[in-house]
Amino acid sequence: xxxxxxxxxxxxxxxxxxxxxxxxxxxxxxxxxxxxxxxxxxxxxxxxxxxxxxxxxxxxxxxxxxxxxxxxxxxxxxxxxxxxxxxxxxxxxxxxxxxxxxxxxxxxxxxxxxxxxxxxxxxxxxxxxxxxxxxxxxxxxxxxxxxxxxxxxxxxxxxx
Length: 160
Prior knowledge:
This protein is α+β, with helices and mostly antiparallel strands. The protein has three helices and ten strands, in the order αββαββββαββββ. The protein has a domain at 96-139. 21% of the residues lie in helices and 23% in strands. The strands form four sheets. It has a three-stranded antiparallel beta sheet with strand order 2-6-3. It has a three-stranded antiparallel beta sheet with strand order 8-9-10, with no helix packed on it.
C-alpha cells in the first residue's frame, strides 16, 4: 500500500539498499488527506478533488469549522507516483507473497516467500495493513499491541 511504497522510496533515497516484496496490486481503499500535508510531500498532483474548508458536525449544535482544505486522493495517481519514486530511487522488487519472517543466527532476518524463495535482510518492515497479522510475532508477556484503522464516508449534502 501507500505506506510501504512511500517508506521504500524515501529509505532508498537516503542511500539504503531497499527491496519490496509483494504482489503489485492497485490500491483499493479511499484516502482523504489534509491538502497542505500532501503538498509538503510533493503529492498534491494525486489529489482529485479538494474541499476548501472542513466542517465537523457532532450534534445539533453549531458546526465546527476546521479552517483547512481537505482532499480526496486518486488511488490510481497515488499508486503511479509512489511506484515512480521507488523506481527512481533504485528500489528492487520481487512479485511474490511473504509466507513468514524468521530471525537468522547472524542477527539478520530471512523473508520466506512463495516458491521457496528466501530473501536475507537486516531489517524487515511489514506494511501490509490488515493482512499483517500472520507475519507479526509478539513478545511473550510483552506489552499489548494496538492497531489503528480509520473509517469515513463521502456524502453530498444540501448547502444551508
